[in-house]
Amino acid sequence: ARMDGASEWYIFWRIVMPLVKPALATLGILTFLGSWNNFVWPLIATNDPDKYTLPVALATFANDPNRAAGSNGVLMAGSLLVVLP
């Protein structure tokens, strides 16, 4: 490709990326499964809301029909605390 005058970006997008697509798909699937299992297992295994993990507690808080309408800021602050570490 270099002999044909292809730039670095052309080589990357037209030659390298098609070869890496299966690996990226596998990485995406395994990452999703890991995240899903980290959410579902504590949801199934714990009955006490005091022992919920942060993602499960946030999902429970977000889906609570009794929470105040203006509590989206609290939900976003909790999401930030979950994502940062």
The biggest sheet, with number of strands, parallel, antiparallel or mixed sense and barrel status, is: none
The number of distinct β-strands equals 0
Distance between the amino and carboxyl termini? 42 Å
- How many DSSP H or I helices? 3
What proportion of the residues is helical, as a percent range?
Answer: 55-70%
Order of helices and strands: HHH
Report the sheet-strand fraction: under 5%
The total tally of domains equals: 2
Commentary on this structure:
There is one protein chain. The chain is mainly α. It has two domains: 1-45; 46-85, no CATH class. It contains three helices and no strands. It has helices spanning 8-45, 54-62, 72-83. α2 runs antiparallel to α3. It starts with 7 loop residues before the first helix and ends with a helix.
Please describe the structure with a list of short key phrases separated by commas or semicolons.
single chain, mainly alpha, 2 domains, 3 helices
Describe, in short, the structure shown.
By secondary structure, the chain is mostly helical.
Q: Which secondary structure elements does this structure contain, and how are they paired or packed?
A:
Elements: H1 8-45, H2 54-62, H3 72-83
Helix pairs in contact: 2-3
